[in-house]
Amino acid sequence: MTTATMKLHWSPKSPYVRKVMICAHELGVVDKLELVRSVAAMLKPNARLMQDNPLSKIPTLVLDDGFTLFDSIVICEYLDDLADGSLFPSQGSDKWQALRWHALGDGLLDALILWRNEREREAPLQPLIDAFELKTRASLTLLDDEAQALAETAFSIGHIAIACALGYLDYRFDGLGWRRTAPRLAEWFAEIRTRPSFQTTEHVDG
Ligand SMILES: N[C@@H](CCC(=O)N[C@@H](CS)C(=O)NCC(=O)O)C(=O)O
Hints:
Layout: E1 6-10, H1 15-27, E2 33-37, H2 47-50, E3 60-62, E4 68-69, H3 72-82, H4 92-119, H5 126-145, H6 147-152, H7 157-172, H8 178-181, H9 183-192, H10 196-199
Parallel strand pairs: 1-2
Antiparallel strand pairs: 1-3, 3-4
Helix pairs in contact: 1-3, 1-7, 4-5, 4-7, 5-9
Bound molecules: glutathione.
Residues 14, 16, 40-42, 56-59, 71-73, 106 line the site of glutathione (GSH).
C-alpha cells in the first residue's frame, strides 16, 4: 500500500532530481512521493510536464491539492519544512554557509549541463567549452580549500548540493580526473557518499 501524497516529475539521470531525492531520504518522506518518469530535454519541451511546469524542467513537484512547486531549491526547502528538518539552517553563519554551498553546487551543475550539451553538438564552440572547464576547475579548487570546513560543518543542503555536483562529474565527466586536482575534496566525498541516501540515489542510465 502506498502513502504517496505528492507527484514528483523524476528521472534517474538528473542531478537536481537526485538532490531532491537525497533530501527526501534524509528527511524520511520518500514514501510520500509518487515518482513519475519524465523526460526533460532542452531541445524537446515535454507537453505533459509543461502542464505542471511551463519551463519543462525536472524536478517538479505536484502537491495533493494540485499546487505545483519548482525548482529543486524550492522543493528541497518545502520537504525540509514538511518534515520539520534541519537541512536548511535558519540563522547565523551556518545558514549563509549552507546557502552559499547550495548555490555553488547548483551553479557548478548548471555549467556542467551546458558544457555537456555543447560538447555533444556537431560543431562545439571551443571557447565555450574552455570557459566551462575553467569555471569547473576553479570551483573544485575553492571546494578543495574548503574540504575541512565541509567535514566540520553540520550536514545541510549545502553538503547535498556539492556532493550531487561531484556525483554528476563522476557520471558524465569521467575523463576529467577531478580527484587528482582536489584530493581533500575527494576524501570528503568518499565519506559522504557512503550515506544510504546517496547510495540509493546513484545515477543510472535508462
Ligand atoms: N534550476 C533548476 C534546474 C533543473 C534542470 O535544469 N533540470 C534539467 C534536467 S537535469 C532539465 O529539466 N532540463 C530540461 C530543459 O532545460 O529544458 C533546478 O534546480 O531544478
